[in-house]
Amino acid sequence: MKILLIGSGAREHALARSLAQAGADLVVAPGNPGTAALGENRALVATDPDAVAALAQELAADLVVVGPEAPLVAGVADAVRAVGIPVFGPDAAAARLEGSKAFAKEIMAAAGVPTALAHVCTTLDEVAEALDAFGAPHVVKDDGLAAGKGVVVTDSREEALAHAAECLAKVGGAVVVEEFLDGPEVSLFCLSDGVTVLPLAPAQDFKRIYDGDAGPNTGGMGAYSPLDWAPEDIAEQVVTRVAQPTIDELARRGAPFVGLLYCGLALTSRGLRVIEFNARFGDPETQVVLARLDTPLDEVLLAAATGRLDQVALHWRDGAAVTVVVAAPGYPAAVETGGALTGLDEAEAVPGAWVLHAGTALDDGGALVASGGRVLSVVGTGATLADARTTAYEALARIGLPGGQHRTDIAASAERGEVRVPDATV
């Protein structure tokens, strides 16, 4: 199967790895040095719908898989479908679920999906009123795309207002102020062909930069799967109460969602609640979810893109997976790029481990260097979560990046059996 994969991060490297293992003939655009070892990289502006559609036609692609959110919101999937090529990824109208948090709240309200109470604000006075109404901790979200870093959760009213002011300063700026949700978080990916919904295995990610969930939010510093502490029927709950009603509501509005609905959830003392929706695979959760998927990924994504998801049964490998992100110095604020990367081959020599590229590039001399904030995802697998953690961190210890940073506590609480779910969600 000829597949064109759009994107350049660790999520796309994880997708490329699984697609290549399934035997796909792969082109990644624009790709990264890691994906170049799995197929052909092609230079491309990923947010240019016409350019993506033209490349798909040139390649005679059987399927186009869109990884990041920005191309989806820009209408890349629309353009490719218009030339008759199947696409895994929603049209721009359905991708608004991620492109606008206010729109996502509107859809959830219409579909009866449980989520946090929220106010959509377009002025600082409205923000101040909403903050006072909900009280601390304050949750303020940029309404538009922010690469996973548009959310501030803080006890400081001043910090919340400052973040809101920054978001509102954008053209057409708006923010969503929400009540704070207690309880552990779960990421559940749901495949959709516009009608049928098929859940993948749940995962948990770690958004803050430092150990102990300290410091600012990032695009994600690590993840693990499975979640032994979550209710056994969590996937069924999410499909029934969240994903299927959302997909049905979008179809009712004439915007069928074909692709990956990312359900970011909190298991609270008042029950299951949606924190956010994304319209694509999450990063870094994809790295661990795909590490456990045994069903060939190319067949699954093509079935979703062509309305045949009801014919798919997913099979999962036993054991666990953990991924730890290596970030550049200064991330997530003033990122320092250009640092030399070493030890990747040694890391991948650890049994059950592999390294996925995110922000990497080759310098003029052909040496691998850091080129972005999140540089690598180091994946470890094992029979147990403890084994997977040990593998991931053993591999990571062999990688060098001057000034690089990573969290040392990914999945540690789960390994120790310390994650607790309020009784209301069981």
UniProtKB/TrEMBL annotation:
Its EC number is 6.3.4.13. GO terms for biological process: 'de novo' IMP biosynthetic process; purine nucleobase biosynthetic process. Gene3D superfamilies: 3.40.50.20, ATP-grasp fold, A domain, ATP-grasp fold, B domain, Phosphoribosylglycinamide synthetase, C-terminal domain. GO terms for molecular function: ATP binding; metal ion binding; phosphoribosylamine-glycine ligase activity. SUPFAM superfamilies: Glutathione synthetase ATP-binding domain-like, PreATP-grasp domain, Rudiment single hybrid motif. The keyword ATP-binding applies. It catalyses: 5-phospho-beta-D-ribosylamine + glycine + ATP = N(1)-(5-phospho-beta-D-ribosyl)glycinamide + ADP + phosphate + H(+). Keywords: ATP-binding, Ligase, Nucleotide-binding, Purine biosynthesis. It comes from the Bacteria. Its cofactor is Mg(2+); Mn(2+). Residues 105-306 form the ATP-grasp domain. Pfam families: GARS_A, GARS_C, GARS_N. Pathway: Purine metabolism; IMP biosynthesis via de novo pathway; N(1)-(5-phospho-D-ribosyl)glycinamide from 5-phospho-alpha-D-ribose 1-diphosphate: step 2/2. Belongs to the GARS family. HAMAP family: GARS. This is Phosphoribosylamine--glycine ligase. The lineage of its organism: Bacteria, Bacillati, Actinomycetota, Actinomycetes, Micrococcales.
